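Show me a record, fold above all:
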Amino acid sequence: MSNTLYLVVLLALSCIASAQSSGAIVPSSLQPSPQIRRLVEALSGTWSITLKIEPNEGLPKGGGGKGEEVWRPGPGGLSLIEDYHSTGDEGEISGLGVAWWDNNAQRYQVTWCDSGNPDGCVVIMQGAKWEGSQVVAMDEWQKNGKRVTLKEIFSDITPTSFKQTLYQGESGGELKKFMSILATKVR
């Protein structure tokens, strides 16, 4: 065992022993919340996706693409991880998302990273929630001196398919659909 690994293991064991001797409860196995279990059950699996991009400045006639999303439980089932890959009129995009239930905020916290984002990753500021049978994620940021809102809705969720619809616009104004994704489970 290397000296560094030995020190890490020793430190971890001493932290556990310290917590136990102070009377702190050290969970042997954390259980996923009902909220994260619901999300994991709804989306886990490998999905073939078809993208439809609405007309915009970069694609005046709109566009499309195809790809795959793989959703799986994170460590201990306490989170949900998405691996994303698509190719189409916007080029090749790969992405990684992680969602987890934040009991204090009463919403899913979401971090999204993709190859098309110059910053690499973003934290979805308003998180996501179930609204009836849909999962709705909201984000807001500053662009060119204006506040921009993004709304992503996962709808028509069944064991074999779901739809993602993304809307964007100036905060306080009308949000316009800019992309939709149809997902079909790969057997």
In short: Helices lie at 3-21, 34-43. The chain has a mean pLDDT of 88.
